[in-house]
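So, can you check this record?

>
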Amino acid sequence: MYVVGLTGGIGSGKSTVANEFTKLGVNLVDADIASRELVKAGAPALEAIGNHFGPTVIETDGSLNRGALREIIFHNGAEKTWLEQLLHPLIGQWLIQQIAASQSPYCILVSPLLLETSQAQLVDCVLVVDVEEGTQLERTLARDGGNEDTVRAIIAAQMSRAKRLEHADDVFYNEQAFKTVATRVLTLHNKYLKAAGAKQADE
């Protein structure tokens, strides 16, 4: 299976680009879905999180209070590391299973932490969705609300824009008009179909 790793900073528009690929019949494997599945109410990982961080990160219905957890981990490096060490191996296992189950000619692994984790080893090429930092901030606040300082901390905690672009095989600059997204995705889709065919022929 040929796997394209799609990544980008918070608020870059990864989901918008990924959704255009699904319209072309491409299967998505989404690390954010993995992280949500693994911390559903009653899940062992959520129990471990509650035991470690305390009741403030658990809602009254037993689900994860994501806002409370985000405030903690993006202002405390040690706590962020603890959470990553718990979740990243579990997420990796989930992603491998989903990639193996993919039925399209190639699949796309969507992950904000693709390049910061071992997930990069699962992909054949890297597609970076790129925007200016000011756009990241504006879009994230418009989408999620919350505290500007927290969003800035998230941006600062992620891999820098320059370093992310160094790892890119393809760059999707997402400051352009939305109406251009589908056309540009189609160009990439045709490229990846050829690459997937070449990989299959070699196997």
Remarks:
- The beta strands are 2-7, 27-30, 106-110, 125-130, 170-173.
